[in-house]
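Reading a protein record of the kind used here takes little practice once its layout is understood. Each number in the token line that follows is a code from a learned vocabulary of backbone shapes. One such record is shown here in full, so that the layout can be seen directly:
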Amino acid sequence: MSNKIIAQRYAIALFSTAKNDDLDSLFSDTKALLEMIHSSDDLIQTLKSPLSKGELKLNIVSSLIKDMSSNKILKGLLDTLYKNKRLSILALVLSSFGEVLLSKRGYKSANVTTASDIDDDTKKNISELLNSQYGSKINIEFKTNESLLGGMTVVVGSKMIDLSVRSQVSKFTNNVKGDI
């Protein structure tokens, strides 16, 4: 079974254990913890490494969550992952939890990837366009990927709109190869 499916199951269990009043603070705490994990390459490597002892991983992450309002719920998740030897997928579980929560609340997820950072006005325009197209309940995440060369890609659910220069060049190259 893939780690993504396993993480999804843990995320659903985490959602089920939290009370409705605690979900918003749990969501913000999981996002904060996920940012802490992604901001440290050493922490990522420690969590993923099979050579790192589970107790070390548990102690490190437990120290990160000690001041969070959802400390008790997150500690339960960490203990369960530790007991099942799955601390290596913690980041996947945390990101899956956000997806589960937004899905249960009726939100659609959208990823907008651009070649370079875009200003707030452009983000606002893209958000308004996507909200008018897909309804007002849409959660948009903006990312950058320099390999796009220019333009953007937009993914909403299983639908992808590729407006990148890389895609245009690839199509042009394939057309030219077909003509030769």
Observations:
- Strands lie at 108-114, 138-144, 152-156, 159-162.
